[in-house]
């Protein structure tokens, strides 16, 4: 009886230890083929309305993981394992995807393309004490009131002002704005453009909204055409953009059509055809202007990687940002000397890196300190660098 009792107690103790280990939020004991690993979550849309842009960020993160597969923590080398989830460009699905990453016990999260899904998941990451580093989620609400969310891109107030400055500098006096109802990125960026353009003395002659998955924009565009604007600012997804562009030109609208960073995607050119020539957009990076040695190395290496993945070899800015977000995560992990989320969050506040998109450090809100945007157009079916611009 005594032997049985000892065996029972031993089994109970083992079970208790196993439960405690399973419930622990720390992944420090995780191993893969004998190697110590740390998990980094990739929270991106690879399907849905923003699936194309999300995949571009994922490719940048995967390439970063390929070139920087390990990190030193307390003198020991850990293999970095990416745990990818698809938030499907949907706010409800974003919550499910975020909860999956929490259950996977990731130490850091990267993403997401699309401010709306980033905002939807933000509190889940904060409650779990897992820091998130956005690549291109530009809406101010992503980091506001959430000290576990950071980002490596500039913000929409800056981007909206930059595009208003560009419009004003190129003689635009009247502008029309088209935004997507219920989309945080689209409505926010449209609003910031409006504020900046009117401050510069411009007039907003028309403001139009459209529904998600809308395909016919002719009624909206007919209203805009009657107002004869010099520029149409239409921040929208890569799904809606070619439809707006093509239908505007079919109606005989000759105004400049402009938007923000989401339009730097080759599928827009492919789907809009010749109508895409002359569009203008702001973005975060230009491969013809490497900011430093890291950028030069990334440009040559990532082009080879894209070729291997059977992708277009033109480097999207969001891929560069995805790469930079990964580098920031590694620097914070190494600085913290820990896989603990709170320790990594604290380290992120002081992180400085020379990334592909330039020098990156964070302000008190977790936003990257950036003051320059690249303006591009489309000419002969290709994106072409026009100028760099800052906020006046």
UniProtKB/TrEMBL annotation:
<dbReference type="InterPro" id="IPR028082">
    <property type="entry name" value="Peripla_BP_I"/>
</dbReference>
<protein>
    <submittedName>
        <fullName>Amino acid/amide ABC transporter substrate-binding protein (HAAT family)</fullName>
    </submittedName>
</protein>
<comment type="similarity">
    <text>Belongs to the leucine-binding protein family.</text>
</comment>
<keyword id="KW-0732">Signal</keyword>
<dbReference type="InterPro" id="IPR028081">
    <property type="entry name" value="Leu-bd"/>
</dbReference>
<feature type="domain" description="Leucine-binding protein">
    <location>
        <begin position="38"/>
        <end position="381"/>
    </location>
</feature>
<feature type="signal peptide">
    <location>
        <begin position="1"/>
        <end position="21"/>
    </location>
</feature>
<dbReference type="Pfam" id="PF13458">
    <property type="entry name" value="Peripla_BP_6"/>
</dbReference>
<dbReference type="InterPro" id="IPR051010">
    <property type="entry name" value="BCAA_transport"/>
</dbReference>
């Amino acid at each position: 009886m005594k032997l049985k009792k000892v065996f029972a107690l031993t089994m109970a103790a083992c079970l208790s230890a196993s439960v405690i280990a399973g419930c622990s939020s720390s992944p420090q004991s995780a191993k893969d083929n004998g190697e110590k690993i740390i998990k980094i979550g990739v929270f991106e849309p690879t399907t849905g309305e923003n699936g194309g842009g999300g995949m571009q960020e994922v490719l940048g993160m995967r390439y970063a993981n390929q070139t920087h597969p390990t990190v030193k923590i307390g003198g020991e080398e850990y293999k970095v394992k990416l745990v990818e989830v698809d938030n499907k460009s949907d706010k409800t699905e974003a919550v499910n995807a975020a909860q999956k990453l929490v259950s996977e016990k990731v130490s850091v999260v990267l993403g997401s393309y699309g401010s709306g899904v980033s905002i939807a998941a933000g509190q889940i990451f904060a409650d779990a004490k897992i820091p998130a580093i956005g690549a291109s989620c530009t809406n101010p609400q992503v980091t506001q009131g959430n000290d576990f969310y950071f980002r490596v891109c500039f913000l929409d107030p800056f981007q909206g002002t930059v595009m208003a400055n560009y419009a004003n500098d190129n003689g635009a006096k009247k502008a029309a704005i088209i935004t997507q109802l219920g989309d945080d990125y689209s409505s926010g960026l449209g609003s910031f453009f409006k504020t900046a353009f009117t401050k510069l003395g411009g007039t907003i002659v028309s403001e139009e909204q459209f529904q998600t998955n809308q395909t016919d924009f002719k009624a909206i565009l007919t209203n805009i055409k009657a107002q004869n604007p010099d520029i149409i600012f239409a921040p929208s997804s890569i799904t809606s953009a070619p439809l707006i562009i093509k239908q505007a030109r079919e109606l005989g609208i000759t105004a400049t059509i402009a938007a923000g960073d989401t339009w730097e995607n080759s599928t827009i050119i492919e789907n809009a055809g010749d109508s895409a020539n002359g569009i203008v957009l702001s973005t975060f990076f230009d491969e013809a202007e490497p900011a430093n040695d890291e950028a030069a190395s990334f440009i040559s290496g990532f082009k080879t990687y894209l070729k291997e993945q059977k992708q277009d070899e033109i480097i999207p800015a969001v891929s560069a940002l995805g790469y930079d977000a990964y580098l920031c995560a590694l620097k914070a992990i190494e600085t913290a000397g820990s896989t603990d989320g709170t320790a990594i969050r604290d380290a992120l506040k002081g992180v400085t890196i020379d990334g592909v998109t330039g020098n990156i450090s964070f302000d008190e809100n977790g936003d990257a300190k950036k003051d320059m945007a690249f303006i591009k157009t489309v000419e002969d079916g290709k994106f072409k660098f026009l100028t760099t611009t800052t906020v006046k």
